[in-house]
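INTERNAL TRANSFER SHEET
From: sequence group
To: structure group
Subject: FAD-binding domain-containing protein

Please process the attached sequence and return the structure record in the designated field. Keep the field labels unchanged so the import script can parse them.
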Amino acid sequence: MRKRLLLAQANFFSAIYQYNDTSGQRMPWVTGLAPTETLDRYGITGGMVPWNALRSILYGGAPPGLVEFGCKVVGCAAPEDNRPAANTTGGGESAAGGGSDAGDGGGAYASAPAAAPREVLARAKFVIAADGFFSRVRRVAGDGSAPVFQRSVRWLANVPQADLVSGRIPAPAAIKLGTDPTALISSHVWLPASLENLTAQPTRGFLMYSAGTDEASGSEGGGGGARMIWTLFTRVETLEAAGEAYPMRAPAAGGDTVAAAAEGGTTALETVQLSNTTGPRAHERAVLMSAHLPPDVRAIIAATEPERVLEFGSHIHSPDSYVPGAWTDGRGLLLVGDAAHTGRADGQGANLALEDAAVLGALVRQHGLGPETFRVWEAARMQRARDILHDPTPEGSLRFPLIYSATFEPLWCPLKLAGPGGPLPAEVAAEVQAAVAGGGLDKGREVVLAWSRREVRRIVEARVAGRVWVESVAPPPGVVRMR
Ligand SMILES: Cc1cc2nc3c(=O)[nH]c(=O)nc-3n(C[C@H](O)[C@H](O)[C@H](O)COP(=O)(O)OP(=O)(O)OC[C@H]3O[C@@H](n4cnc5c(N)ncnc54)[C@H](O)[C@@H]3O)c2cc1C
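Return from structure group:
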């Protein structure tokens, strides 16, 4: 049921349009997207899922008590005697520590709820760190590396579609709101678009696309209808040339003592912490950085409510960091998701994080939990993550086949799904039970997978019913596929 609900909340774009970012002129090429055709071709199709829906489903699927909110890991250390945290009982333990961000390697694996600060020491045989792109666990207990600032600054904001339709927020003429039925379900990209400068990834851009649906807002109690997201990005140098410092806030006196790479006098940690800002100043700076855009595009940025605008710096783990041992210490520590491989915000980070978990689950089931499994997992994931996040080809010809060929060992048991209270309809559950009785669990899995494919198709078809299909027009050779 949960999976169906998630897919039912997905947005399927109709097309991707490009515009020149000073004249506003629409480029003659367009990427038409037909999710049902993609389903026919690959068995899967891409969809944009609201962040909160994904979170709710993941938390809802976890056993009660597994996720504890309001706690912060302030340190993490391997046991002092260097015993490997192996598949034996009583393995690793953490040393007590200070709870600072000093990164001296002596911190405990501790949590401190904000309301009543209190440190808790937890001893764990294994630590699987999924603490995101600036993973503290990686910095203090792993290889110590942090994602590298790309000298690119981004603003992310959302505007209700209702405001665009009513004219309260002016929509750019280029997206033809009144005449193009696909306008609000397409992705619109303003770039310095000409053959000359679209042969490399652009250093500035403005994107608008829909995210969330009426259905999604309703089911999550948001009640605000569908939204359009806009993203603006530019180089730090451009921001500085306009008289704005980066990061926006100055580091506090005394500064942070994290041993991270200095970047123009500011540590990487300071840069990331001080750059994530929402509100009027972030909005002001976005308006300033939109000066090159056509007036009707600038108008959306200017009319967006400042509280809906987030400014952040783009940080990634460079491809050079993908070396054996970077994601596991060969003992009890493993890094997954962004903690291991933060890439550019190009729509694959969350997918890869979910894949990480699925592959780890399958390997643990096969080999048990332990350092050897962690090593096997790292070897299995590293190449794929690098090829997808750092594909050097202009067309993405390395990454797209990998994305569309994703298959994973099912972690579920068909009999469990077919049991009382399971998600399968009664007739499918009966079919699964008969298949398992006649041919074993594999036969039961086949029945579940066949049903699942039918359900996916049914939901996708319902989501795109009545659409006007947009024909793709190929760009001239050499034009990069922006990501
Ligand atoms: C603005 C933006 C837009 C993006 N858009 C997309 C997109 O469209 N599609 C896509 O696939 N990806 C997108 N990404 C990337 C995607 O969000 C990440 O790749 C994905 O969330 C990684 O999942 P994760 O679980 O590894 O880390 P996260 O989702 O970052 O989760 C890490 C968790 O750890 C917690 N945490 C961190 N430090 C501590 C600590 N010390 N103690 C306790 N908890 C801690 C955090 O609070 C957080 O809940 C986007 C990223 C950004 C910044």
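Handover comment: The chain has 17 helices and twelve strands. The pocket of flavin-adenine dinucleotide is lined by residues 72-73, 130-133, 136, 156, 337-339, 345, 347-351, 353 (CB under 6 Å).
Transfer complete.
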